[in-house]
Specification:
Its main location: membrane. Helices cover 0% and strands 47% of the residues. The chain is built from no helices and 20 strands. The radius of gyration is 36 Å and the shape is elongated.
């Protein structure tokens, strides 16, 4: 005859939300006064809201039922669901028809609590692309980043710039709203792109932090006049016909490194 061993009438276990598939949650014990093959048993989850989250298997050495994290479509998440309940059935692998009336199976209820794990902030984007005119004034907002604490309202998020990626201190970020703005004037002719990294950290636990790359493109303004590539000198014959090409002038603009050609004729 099979009986679950549970002095409180219900099994209770706890598992951290960070537990991976295959992580052991706990063991449940059933007794059988038979011996040998007649005492072998197997466990199954027959109902409950945790059927898709957890698995159970029989320990061949002890005949205990071992509950583990299964392979769910979504991982455990304390904020979404802090607990589960499953109904476990145990029964003999071999049943002697002569003793069917004595009972070859039993049921037990198992409650599994999900423990909250402090997680670092998550940015809403994997990277950010921003654009700003090269003549933008100091203090002008370039764009903004945004992150959230996956643990809910437990902690506010604070932003900062990793200064190793902005040694010249050209940019800053508002610690509260993630707005990126200019600390110094820019010059596209010196550098057309700036790549920085913004950090988001929990206000109450700075060790919980994450980073995101920010790519800032400078938009050109026409602040440089074209210049000739060299000093030109040409000669013309007295019998040159009207419209005949005399020379080609080469010039460039440092705004966009554009090289132009101008045709001169008489």
């Amino acid at each position: 005859m099979l009986l679950f061993v549970c002095f409180l009438g219900i099994y209770q276990f706890r598992v951290p939300e960070s537990a991976k598939s295959g992580t052991s949650v706990g063991r449940i014990v059933a007794t059988d006064r038979d011996i040998g093959k007649n005492a072998e048993m197997f466990f199954t989850i027959v109902s409950g809201d945790g059927m898709d989250m957890f698995d159970i298997a029989t320990d061949k050495d002890t005949q205990d039922g071992v509950i583990s994290v299964g392979k769910p479509l979504q991982p455990l998440d304390f904020e979404k669901k802090p607990s589960y309940t499953v109904e476990i059935q145990v029964q003999n692998t071999q049943v002697d028809p002569r003793f069917m009336s004595a009972g070859s199976k039993d049921m037990a209820t198992v409650r599994i609590g999900v423990e909250d794990v402090d997680e670092p902030p998550l940015f809403y984007k994997a990277s950010y692309l921003m654009e700003v005119k090269e003549d933008a004034a100091v203090g002008v907002a370039v764009g903004s980043v945004s992150a959230m604490d996956p643990d809910g309202a437990r902690s506010m998020v604070k932003y900062s710039i990793d200064r190793r990626t902005d040694m010249d201190r050209l940019f800053n970020v508002h610690p509260g709203n993630g707005s990126v703005f200019l600390l110094r004037t820019l010059d596209r002719e010196e550098s057309a792109w700036h790549n920085i990294s913004v950090t988001a950290m929990e206000f109450n636990n700075p060790r919980q932090s994450s980073h995101v790359p920010v790519y800032i493109r400078l938009l050109d303004i026409n602040d440089n006049a074209p210049t000739f590539a060299t000093i030109y000198e040409t000669f013309v014959c007295e019998r040159t016909k009207a419209g005949q090409v005399l020379m080609l002038d080469h010039f460039y603009s440092s705004d966009c490194m554009y090289i132009g050609i101008q045709q001169r004729s008489n």
